[in-house]
Design goal:
heterodimer, A: 112 residues, mainly beta, six-stranded mixed sheet, 11 strands, globular, B: 115 residues, seven-stranded mixed sheet
């Protein structure tokens, strides 16, 4: 089983829509979780951390379900500028290859 | 000024040439990483360093080497470039504290083409 899995998409949605991405992770010892955003040919940038109790930042809401080992990202009132690839990132202690594992990303395209 | 910089930003080279990609950071982070990104494959870890005296191989280190010249500098070398090393290369930094691991910050990337 892959360590971090995401639906690659693309998700094509109209402006104003609500869209949700899920991500599953395989290591039950994982401790820290993040969502990154990556624009085409640009570097990944942190969108938000994901906390156990769930957290919100404007139109973005992240949630964690430890029992089922998945995290989610909800985007409300989508904007054209939200078009990007969203990377699910999981940290776990004791990893032999650095401490962050990146999913391959989910591509979002917001249309007028 | 950017916290994490990479040079060059673009490079075209020929098979068999030695190439060095450089990364510098002003964030004061101990941890530095080199990744490559290929379409459909996501980010793959090449090498990482937790401090100046610590170098570790990632999942795809064959054909690459690194040097951590100082806390702020981490360079990646391709000893003899081959076409399948054509990719987008990212450097990243990460702060650390006992028991806590933070998010990574990425440089703008180097687009390398090996002909």
């Amino acid at each position: 089983r892959k360590e971090v899995e995401q639906d690659p998409g693309p998700f094509n949605v109209p402006e104003g829509a609500t869209v949700a991405f899920n991500c599953t992770y395989s290591n039950s010892a994982s401790q820290s979780f993040f969502w990154y955003r990556q624009d085409c040919r640009k570097e990944p940038k942190l969108l938000m951390s994901v906390y156990s109790s769930g957290n919100e930042d404007g139109r973005f809401t992240a949630q964690l379900n430890r029992a089922s080992q998945y995290i989610s990202l909800l985007i409300r009132d989508s904007k054209l500028s939200d078009s990007a690839t969203y990377l699910c990132v999981v940290n776990f202690y004791g990893g032999s290859q650095g401490n962050l594992i990146f999913g391959k990303g989910t591509k979002l395209s917001v249309k007028p | 000024d950017a916290d994490v910089t990479q040079t060059p930003r673009n490079r075209i080279t020929k098979t068999g040439k030695r190439i060095m990609l450089e990364c510098s950071q002003t964030k004061g982070h101990d941890r530095m990483y080199w990744y490559r990104q290929d379409p459909g494959l996501g980010l793959r870890l090449i090498y990482y360093s937790f401090d100046v005296k610590d170098i570790n191989k990632g999942e795809i280190s064959d054909g690459y080497s690194v040097s951590r010249q100082a806390q702020a500098k981490f360079s990646l070398s391709l000893e003899s470039a081959i076409p399948n090393q054509t990719a987008l290369y990212f450097c990243a930094t990460q702060g650390s504290r006992a028991g806590v691991t933070y998010e990574q910050f990425f440089g703008p990337g180097t687009r390398l083409t090996v002909l």
